[in-house]
Amino acid sequence: MDLKNLIDHLELSSGDIIGMGASLGCAILWSFSELFTTSAFSHMVFVDQAPLQNYTADGAWGPTHGNRGCNSAASLAHLQATLRYSPETAYKSTIQSCLAYRSHPLPLEFVSAEQIAADERFFLDIAMQGNGIWYGKLMADHTALDWRDSIRHCFGPGSGSKTNVLVVTSERSGCFPAAGPLAVVDLVNGDRPEGGLAISVTISWGGHWCYWESPPEFNRLVEKFLAQAGTEEGGP
Given pLDDT bands bounded at 50, 70 and 90, which one contains residue 192? Predict the structure, then answer.
C-alpha cells in the first residue's frame, strides 16, 4: 500500500510509470501488481531477485535457483539470531555477498584495501542505523513468499499486462545463481508465440548491487531497454 499511496500522492500518470526494484524491491513491485495489476507501469526492471528464495522440499527449486545463503527455515533462524545478537557480523556478511569483487573476485581485478574498507564502512554505517530484530522479521516474510504463480498470473499470457519487463542478473552475484532471477522471464513470457514482454541481461561487471558498483554501465543498460521498448530518452 505504501507504493500505491505514493503514486496517488504524486499524481503520477497511470500507464506511464517506470518501476525499478532490486532484491526486496522486486517483491514490492510483484506485491503491488498482485493487489492493483500492472496497468500503472509501462516498464518494470527487476534486479537480481529470484521469485522464491527458499529451496522447495521436492527438490525442483534448489541451489540452482534459490538464494545462496538464506534458503530454509534453519538458515533464516541463524540469520535472525545473528541479526539480534551480532548485527555487525550479519551486515558484513551481506556486504561480502552483494559486492561482486568480494563474492566473486576476478584474477586480474584489483581493489585496494583502502577502497574495500571504505565500501564496507559506507554500507555498515547505513545498516547499523536500523534494528536487527526487525530486519530479521522482514527477512522471514521476504524469504518465505513464493511469487511464481503471482508473477505468472499478473504478468503472464492471459493476464492482459502490457508492461515491458527487464530482468537483470549477474554471473557474479553472491546472492542468487543467474537461473533464479531468469525464471521471471519464463513466467512473464510463458508460451507467447511472439516472444513475450520480458527480456533479460546477465552481466559480469557487478553483482547483487551492480547499480551501485557501476552506475554508468547500469544506466546504459536500462536506457537501452527503455529505448528498445519504445520509451524516448527523457521520458517518464
Answer: confident
- Contact status, residue 107 vs residue 216, Cβ threshold 8 Å: no
pTM attached to this predicted model: 0.93
Rounded Cα–Cα distance for residues 232 and 236 (Å): 9
Phi-psi category of 44—alpha, beta or left, where left has phi over 0 and alpha has psi -120 to 50?
A: beta
195 CB-contact burial (10 Å; exposed 0-12 / middle 13-18 / buried 19+):
exposed
Rounded-to-integer distance, Cα 146 and Cα 156, Å: 16
Taking residue 143's Cβ as centre, other Cβ atoms within 10 Å add up to 22
State the average pLDDT for the chain: 94
Asked if 125 contacts 118 with a C-beta cutoff of 8 angstroms, the reply is no
- E runs forming strands in 59-174: 164-170
At 174, list the grid cell.
Answer: 553472491
Query: Residue 33 burial (CB < 10 Å; 0-12/13-18/19+)?
Result: buried
Using an 8 Å Cβ cutoff, are 147 and 25 in contact? no
CA 23 to chain centre: 3
How many Cβ atoms sit within 10 Å of the Cβ of residue 113?
A: 7
Please list the alpha-helical segments (H only) found in 20-129: 24-36, 73-85, 87-98, 100-103, 113-127
